[in-house]
Amino acid sequence: MKQSRVNGTAVATVRPVRRRFGRLVAAGVTLLLLAGVVSGCATKPPASDTEAVVEFERRNDPIEPLNRYVFEVNRFFDFMLLKPVAVVYRSITPDRVQNGVRNFLNNLRSPIILANDLLQGDLGRARITTARFITNTIVGVGGIYDFASHIGYPRHDEDFGQTLATWGVSEGPYLVLPLLGPRPPRDLIGLAVDQAFDPLTYVLPANDAEEVGYGLLAADVIDSRARGIEALDEIEASSIDLYATIRNLYRQRRAAAIENRDDAPADMTHAPQ
Amino acid sequence: MTTRRQLLLAGGAAGLALALAGHPALAADAATAFIDDLGGRAIAVLADKSLSEQQRETDFRDLFLLAFDVSAIGQFVLGRYRRTATPEQIEEFNRLYTVDVVKTYSRRLSQYAGEQLQTLGSEVLEGETLVRSQIVSPKGGAPVQVGWRLTGTPGNYKIVDVVIENLSMRSAQREDFGSVISNGGMDALLAGLKKKNGIS
Questions:
Q1: pLDDT-derived band of residue A29, with 50, 70 and 90 as boundaries?
Q2: How far B59 CA lies from chain A's nearest CA (Å)?
Q3: Among A32, A156, A176, A219, which lies 20 to 30 A Cα-Cα from B39?
Q4: Quick check: pTM over 0.95?
Q5: Does A90 touch chain B (CB under 8 A)?
Q6: Is A3 on the interface with B (CB under 8 A)?
Q7: Max CA-CA distance within chain A?
Q8: Residues of B in contact with A252 (CB under 8 A)
Q9: Which chain A residue is nearest to residue B104, measuring alpha carbons?
Q10: In the CATH hierarchy, which top-level class contains the domain B3-196?
Q11: A81 exposure class (CB count in 10 Å sphere: 0-12, 13-18, 19+)
Q12: ipTM of predicted assembly, 2 dp
């Protein structure tokens, strides 16, 4: 999932959710899920209609009514708050600054990517991640410039959800969470484990600087949303059932990320000859 | 950074000049040339200031209907529901879906702001030809990867899918339409297409 222009949903791109906030969401989700078991189950087609059963299983969305409800709540939140903030952010921030913010946030994510490169046994990519982190932190002024991508170290992303997938763990039933957006069980576990891989999870509280973490999270959410404004508007305009379309796009995007089809192309513009 | 941008700009300007002059650009194979040519023609329509709004719409419509295999895409996105629909429903679907495709791609193109379409070659994939390309924005940032899936043979290629950043549009639309039909039947889909495109 590199700087995804087509976002799952408005809030699907929330990546480094940190600590307490994550726990709060998890508690809310558990409650909602309990309610869902009672009220929000999709009706399974009769076994005689084999084609419908196949489709129902491929859709793999057993609590679809509840998911749709949370999806609409998220859309309302996006419409009322996140999208307007993202629009303002984009209009008052010069492109260079926006790219600097994105590069800086991407660079901070390097330890998580490195941990997952290693867990997937991909030493070549682990080497690239390390080279990128060192290059961009030093030459790229703390990560503001992505110099490494111009000397043949293009950015790639990894997360523990992808690592689980390479270990053969399947995604599980589709799940839409409040604020987080689409997050099936495998990717939800991935999100939690990635927090443990993030040095900031330990460094910031140890220095009484937890606010910095919230600031980074806010910057990430707003910047990601700003990058997806046109794409999401277009998806809304071109679909009839937005929920079903997003469900499909989320799964397509994850499949591409797992197979590493989403890497940026190599660029050797500034590479030493 | 500066030299790279200048190079890109120079390359882009040269590519645009070639495309506008009607040359089939520098394509290594027929499928890539088809997409190069299509991009050049779309930009030519956009750049022609003498066209009235209505004339431009008509030109786009002709261009899309020539380039896209709308009936094949329609069959794909209906999936299994095609077999249970009545002939009248299918006929109505084909009519509405043609309008829908033209409208969707006209809207996407109308947001054009100086981007460059650069083709990157083609390969045969699952019986179709995939042409890889990227769209480079004059604002900088990472280019958008776009794949074009074609059927047919050199000389009569047709587009059957557009893959934007690894996302297949026909696959997303099949799930979209399938969900609408399974919830409300074929008539719900026809009503939805009418509503979306402002047709009564």
A1: low
A2: 21
A3: A156
A4: no
A5: no
A6: yes
A7: 67
A8: 166-168, 171-172
A9: A238
A10: alpha beta
A11: exposed
A12: 0.82
